[in-house]
Amino acid sequence: VQLQASGGGAVQAGGSLRLSCAVSTRTFSNYVIGWFRQAPGKEREFVAGINRSGSGSRYPDSVKGRFTISRDNANNTVYLQMNSLNPDDTAVYYCYAQRKGWTIYLYWGQGTLVTVSS
After folding, report:
1. Mean pLDDT on 27-51
2. Residue 118 contacts residue 10 (beta carbons within 8 Å)
3. Helix (H, G, I), strand (E, B) or coil at 1
4. pLDDT per position as a tens digit, 56-113
């Protein structure tokens, strides 16, 4: 399984960005997909997750109401729409894919940088 994140960039506070994560696998709909982020000097933080069908999602309070995760199972892609960005959202954003079997299978993308200026 390979994940390719894209869509990062520089934006001013209050702006928006949409990240994409293309997942290379024949069984995309078997995976929970989500995003973490890591700011300089900080631990990696969960940002959003979406279930296999796309019917359910989770967000931490820090982004709830501003970020929306969605998935396109026909095109093996997950999106993270980020609105009302602020400088605290500056980080490298990583997408992941998780599947449970006899063990937990977890795959990461390479990360895409989001920089929000005030």
Report:
1. 96
2. no
3. coil
4. 999 999 999 999 999 999 999 999 999 999 999 999 999 999 998 889 999 999 999 9
- In whole angstroms, give the CA distance from residue 50 to residue 57: 4
HEC string of 43-110 equals CCEEEEEECCCCCCEECCCCCCCCEEEEEECCCCEEEEEECCCCHHHCEEEEEEEEEECCCEEEEECC
List C-alpha distances in Å: 52 to 4, 24, 66, 81.
18, 15, 22, 18
pLDDT tens for 18-33 read 999 999 999 999 999 9
Q: Is 47's pLDDT higher than 90?
A: yes
Could you give the 3-state DSSP secondary structure of residue 3? strand
What b/e string do you get for 13-38 counting C-beta neighbours within 10 Å, with b at 16 or more? eeeebebbbbbeeeebeebbbbbbbe
Residue pair 21/32 in contact (Cβ under 8 Å)? The answer is no
